Amino acid sequence: MAANNFFKHWPTWVLGLLVAVILLFAVFSFQLNETEVAVVTTLGRPAQVTEPGLHFRWPYPFQRIYRFDKRTRCFAGGAGKLEETTTSDGHNLLVGIYVNFRIADAEKFFRTLENITQGEEKLNALMRGYKNAAIGECLFKEIINTDPKEMKLKMIQDKIRKNLAAETKDYGIAIIDVGISTINVPKSISEKVADRMIAERKVQSDAYISEGNARAKQIRTEADTSKTIQLADAEAKARTIRAEGDAEAAKYYATFTQDPKLAEFLLKLDSLRKIMKGRTTLVTDYRTAPFDILQQGAEELKKSQKGNK
Question: How far apart are CA 38 and CA 55, in angstroms?
Answer without folding.
Answer: 11
